[in-house]
Write a structure and sequence with these properties.
The structure holds 3 protein chains of 3 kinds.
Chain A lengths: L5 E14 L2 E14 L3 E5 L6 H9 L6 E6 L2 E2 L5 H11 E4 L11 H6 L9 H14 L15 H13 L5 E5 L7 H17 L3 E5 L3 H6 L2 E6 L2 E2 L1
Parallel strand pairs in A: 3-8, 3-9, 6-7, 7-8
Antiparallel strand pairs in A: 1-2, 1-4, 4-5, 9-10
Chain B lengths: L1 H15 L1 H35 L4 E6 L12 H8 L14 E12 L6 E9 L1 H6 L4 E5 L8 E5 H6 L8 E4 L2 E10 L8 E5 H7 L7 E5 L6 H10 L5 E5 H8 L1 H36 L1 H9 L4 H28 L5 E6 L4 E6 L4 H27 L3 H6 L2
Parallel strand pairs in B: 3-8, 5-7
Antiparallel strand pairs in B: 1-9, 1-10, 2-3, 2-9, 4-7, 5-8, 6-7, 11-12
Chain C lengths: L1 H11 L3 H34 L4 E6 L7 E2 L2 H6 L4 E9 L12 E5 L1 H7 L2 E2 L2 H9 L3 E5 H7 L6 E5 L6 E12 L8 E5 H11 L6 E2 L1 E6 L5 H11 L7 E5 H11 L1 H32 L1 H9 L4 H37 L12 H27 L2 H8 L1
Parallel strand pairs in C: 4-9, 6-8
Antiparallel strand pairs in C: 1-11, 1-12, 2-10, 3-4, 3-11, 5-8, 6-9, 7-8
Helix pairs in contact in C: 1-12, 2-9, 2-10, 2-12, 2-13, 10-13, 11-14, 12-13
The chains are: A alpha/beta, B alpha+beta, C alpha+beta.
The complex binds adenosine-5'-triphosphate and magnesium ion.
């Protein structure tokens, strides 16, 4: 069988935070490779640095040392503006608290990342509608986040994450704030994204049931990958 | 494209915090109101005085006298001026020229014990012909050689003894008001008119104040001016009537503008602080939203723009409200003493496109001033930390 | 107690930036008020400084009509008249129109007796001796950098021609707030010249100023004067110097009133914004008040705590405003010196500052404080959870 290409290559990655002369070393010399079409679950105790690692992969934080290559690009070398452009094209985000924009409708929230592309209004519309159908929320498209349940909001967030057809999807505790049934729906959706659409997903979770959906589970403890 | 969406994003955010938005805008609206009203007042004053003078009339006064009231022209001087060939002739062949006397009298205001100085102008029929704006609206014109007066509409209402049929006691004589006139928005509406000879006799004034005439050809003004002003027997000054009146609004309009500007600057400080408080609170409560937008790939400048836009909208909203309120002032007239002529003048607030633009521009600046600091704070945030915010 | 104070200050300045802005807006509102009030006072300052024992007599038609000099002796004979002087408004322009200052032709002996000007004896003597000389106020002299002995030329607007004067003295105010930016010269000098160039205007004065022996005689004396000249060619209007001055101010009253009204409204709005901000910060912390209640703080204690916190903010604004008022008023006074010669701070303003900031502090806090004090603990705890 042919080896799928590597989509994330992390080498010797370290990250620490400085607060008033105190240094908290969060990640120490981490190396990690993730293949295309992977569905990886990152687990570990609270404070172990899972979110930090995810942020580094997604390019919203910068490492102290080591390299992070995503889709062949060393993102540590990109400037602030290049990084923003890179994120818009390559990363889809799913957050624990959905982080939808409260003053925009479901439709507009999903459309948001497309505003950074060159698509015409008509094309954007088609994309968004496809995504809405995918997450099964087409009839709620004109509702505001405040009018949707947590599970529905998370599904909107998922639609927003895949709308630009990103290289990777990162999810930080996507079911952390949901009840069991909504969580199940969200996980099923993510599973479909991975299996049917071939999306690479990296998910941080505390929930063993969520981890079960993943194809690969890695544990992070005290800044070290097990 | 992006900016259209940003605009609607900013607008909706303002609508989401309706009460705070209204309060903050109201503060700005009032500042804009103050600015607009003082500019409108100065504009109204200027407009009134500019409308008073007509472009093809010429005023001759004594050299060095800043107003007709301070001027004096002897009969001999007047006779010389009258021989100038540039003076237009009326239908019956007589020159369109009037020797006038202008004095200030102190009158009691109706309904209070306060006084003001009012201009009383002595003229002849030609005076009326030279000022077609002056129209009799009630009563009749004074009969020649009688102590009768006609009163401008703004004076008749406001001063004791100035209504139709009433009498004024001046210079040991009773003067009967036999008519009221309206001169539109011009300064003449704030004057009293009488017969020139009667007035000079009553006040024992041997000299005229000014000579007014129409030019035959407007192009001859410069030559006429040089002619009269260089004549050593005449120490007189020649001005176009329009300029003469425009000059009389100069100081007072400047004073009103400076006053308005100072008030505006002081008050806008307060309004800008209000906007900073509001925008700062907006940034604080939307920290996570900002983090999300940045994570999705929006650049710092997009965030900066969004918040600046929001602040500018806040200001603009205030500006519109302030201007709307100020536009009603056009219905209001003000009567006050023009420092320059020391006499009562009635004028109304006048709104112009320029003032509207200035007021709105100022409201935008105020909004931006309030939003600048919070917007920079918003776009300077670290994404990861912003996302962690509660 | 110490702990409570600490809690108080910690709370008041918890959101440093917001507390800072709130204090700032209270400061700005108070300063705006102080400045405007001082500005308005300055308009009335001339009237305030005038004596109740002086009368001004002028032509009843209007100020632009003169009175004959012959009236002087008739007025002098009226019972209660102690001193008399007279003069005319000259209205001369020094070089350019924008250099405006008040200049009068006066009869100097009576004038210097009636007004409390400080003029060194040698200068006074020189002024009285030389008919071509003039005296000018200290500020006016500073403004144009004049020196004693300088020749000053005024261009006449009412009396045509160029008029030259020798500066003989520089006066300053004595105990009362007199305008130190005026210019006086001999009425005789003007009159002699008028006799030659405009004889019909000679021997006429614009006003008489009359010193009355007792303050309660003013009304009678004024009436007696006006009665004397009734039905004469030039009837008089005599009033106290104060009401004479006030009549000038009331002429432009419309503008002053408008300023006063608008200012008050704007200041109120600024205060309302500040109050709203404080109310907001109390509301935000409902949870904390409830925690304090569960710890055993009574409702009254909580109200006091919230009120005190709000008062700390507004009083801080008051203190800063008080400190800034002095430099601000003196800066403005200096800039406006040529228009409003007497620009002085009144103590009442600070009482107002204190009262206003206290009021705003209480008004802003009282409703949220009562609400916080009344909240049932159980419900509130649920609300925070
Ligand atoms: N901006 C920061 N400043 C200081 N310390 C930070 C910062 N961000 C994270 N940390 C610290 O880094 C460590 C790892 O944080 P991280 O958020 O990655 O943990 P986590 O594994 O995601 O935990 P959880 O499961 O609770 O979300 C924690 O000890 C945290 O306190
Ligand atoms: Mg985490």
């Amino acid at each position: 069988m042919e080896q799928p290409p590597l989509i994330v290559e992390i080498k010797d990655l370290s990250k620490s935070y400085h607060r008033n002369s105190q240094t908290i070393s969060v990640l120490q010399h981490i190396s990690l490779e993730i293949e295309a079409r992977e569905f990886l679950a990152l687990m570990g105790p609270s404070g172990s640095g899972k979110s930090t690692l995810l942020n580094l992969i997604a390019g919203i934080d910068r490492p102290d040392s080591g390299t992070v290559r995503v889709g062949g690009v060393d993102i540590a070398l990109l400037s602030e503006a290049q990084l923003a452009r890179w994120r818009a094209a390559n990363v889809g985000f799913i957050f624990q608290f959905y982080n939808l924009i409260p003053v925009l409708t479901a439709f507009e929230n999903i459309e948001l990342p497309l505003l950074l592309t060159r698509l015409s209004r008509q094309e954007r519309r088609e994309h968004v509608e496809t995504a809405l159908h995918l997450v099964n929320l087409f009839d709620r498209k004109d509702h505001y986040p405040g009018q949707l349940s947590g599970g529905e909001q998370q599904r909107v967030a998922i639609a927003r994450a895949i709308i630009t057809d990103p290289t990777i999807i990162v999810a930080d505790e996507p079911t952390g704030d949901l009840d069991r049934i909504s969580a199940e729906e969200v996980l099923t959706l993510m599973d479909r994204l991975n299996r049917e659409l071939g999306k690479t997903i990296i998910m941080v979770t505390h929930d063993p049931r969520a981890a079960d959906k993943a194809r690969l589970i890695r544990h992070l403890e005290k800044g070290l990958l097990q | 494209m992006l900016s259209a969406i940003l605009l609607s994003y900013s607008f909706r955010n303002l609508m989401a915090r309706r009460l705070t938005t209204i309060l903050t805008s109201l503060g700005m609206a009032l500042v804009v109101f103050v600015l607009a009203s003082s500019l409108m007042l100065a504009e109204g004053l200027e407009k009134t005085l500019v409308e008073t003078g007509s472009a093809d009339n010429v005023v001759v006064i004594r050299k060095g006298a800043t107003t007709e009231v301070l001027s004096g022209i002897t009969r001999e001087q007047a006779a010389i001026v009258e021989t100038q060939p540039e003076i237009a002739l009326g239908a019956e062949g007589q020159p369109l020229l009037a020797r006038e006397v202008v004095v200030l009298i102190t009158l009691q205001r109706r309904g209070s014990d306060k006084q003001s100085n009012v201009v009383i102008r002595g003229g002849r029929e030609q005076s009326l012909r030279l000022r077609p704006k002056v129209k009799l609206v009630e009563g009749r014109l004074p009969r020649p050689a009688t102590a009768e007066i006609i009163v401008g509409k703004n004076i008749a209402r406001r001063f004791k003894g100035c209504g139709l049929g009433e009498t004024l006691r001046l210079g040991l004589q009773e003067w009967r008001v036999c008519g009221l006139f309206d001169a539109g928005n011009s300064g003449f509406s704030s004057e009293i008119w009488a017969d020139v000879d009667q007035l000079m006799q009553a006040f024992r004034r041997p000299v005229y104040s000014s000579i007014i005439f129409r030019l035959d050809k407007a192009s001859e003004f410069e030559r006429l001016k040089a002619d009269i002003e260089t004549n050593p027997r005449l120490t007189l000054e020649v001005k176009r009537e329009a300029e003469y009146y425009a000059e009389q609004s100069k100081w007072m309009a400047k004073f009103l503008r400076i006053l308005g500007a100072s008030l505006t600057v002081i008050f806008s400080l307060g309004a800008v602080i209000g906007a900073i408080i509001t925008m700062n609170a907006a940034v604080a409560t939307r920290t996570r939203e900002i983090g999300t937008l940045r994570a999705l790939g929006f650049r710092r400048r997009d965030i900066l723009l969004a918040f600046l836009l929001e602040a500018a909208l806040l200001g603009f909203l205030g500006g519109l409200v302030g201007l709307f309120l100020a536009s009603f002032l056009q219905l209001v007239t003000i009567s006050t003493t023009n420092f320059q002529t020391f006499s009562e003048l009635t004028f109304s607030f006048a709104l112009s496109v320029k003032i509207a633009c200035q007021a709105l521009a100022f409201s935008l600046i105020m909004g931006l001033g309030g939003g600048l600091f919070p917007a920079f704070k918003a776009c300077g945030m670290n994404i990861a930390e912003a996302l962690r915010a509660g | 107690m110490i702990l409570q104070l600490k809690l108080l200050f910690k709370n008041a300045f918890r959101r440093k930036f917001r507390a800072f802005l709130t204090i700032l807006s209270v400061t700005v509102a108070l300063l705006a008020f102080g400045l405007l009030q001082t500005f308005i006072d300055a308009w009335y300052a001339g009237a305030e400084a005038s004596s109740a024992r002086r009368l001004v007599c002028r032509n009843s038609i209007s100020l632009t009509f003169p009175l004959p000099l012959a009236y002087r002796d008739k007025i002098r004979q009226i019972e209660g008249v102690e001193a008399i002087t007279y003069g005319s408004w000259f209205g001369g322009i020094y070089i350019e129109e924008k250099n405006f200052f008040a200049n009068f032709a006066i009869e100097p002996h009576g004038y210097l007796r009636l007004y409390d000007y400080k003029l060194p004896a040698d200068q006074k003597e020189r002024f009285l001796r030389d008919r071509r000389s003039a005296v000018a106020g200290r500020r006016l002299v500073e403004r144009f950098g004049w020196r004693i002995g300088d020749i000053i030329t005024l261009r006449g607007t009412i009396f045509p021609g160029n008029w030259e004067f020798v500066l003989a003295g520089i006066y300053s105010r004595g105990t009362v707030d007199l305008d130190e930016s005026q210019f006086f010269f001999h009425w005789d000098y003007l009159n002699q010249a008028l006799k030659k160039i405009m004889p019909h205007r000679a021997d006429m004065v614009d006003f008489y100023i009359i010193g009355v022996s007792k303050a309660d005689l003013t009304t009678e004396v004024a009436q007696a004067i006006d009665q004397t000249f009734k039905n004469s060619l030039a009837e008089t209007l005599t009033e106290t110097e104060r009401s004479f001055q006030l009549s000038f101010v009331t002429m432009s009253e419309a503008i002053i009133k408008a300023i006063q009204l608008i200012s008050l409204v704007v200041i109120l709005i600024i205060m309302a914004v500040a109050a709203n901000t404080m109310a907001m910060s109390v509301r935000e912390r409902t949870g904390e008040w409830v925690v304090l209640k569960t710890l055993g703080f009574g409702p009254r204690k909580i109200i006091v705590l919230i009120l005190a916190e709000s008062l700390i903010i507004t009083l801080a604004g008051c203190i800063i405003a008080t400190a800034l008022t002095f430099p601000m008023v003196s800066t403005f006074g200096r800039t406006l010196r040529n228009y409003l010669p007497i620009f002085r701070l009144k103590r009442e303003i600070f009482y107002f500052y204190l009262a206003a900031s206290f009021l705003v502090g209480v008004v802003a806090a009282i409703i949220p404080a009562c609400r916080a004090a009344k909240i049932p603990i159980a419900e509130a705890l649920r609300r925070i959870a």
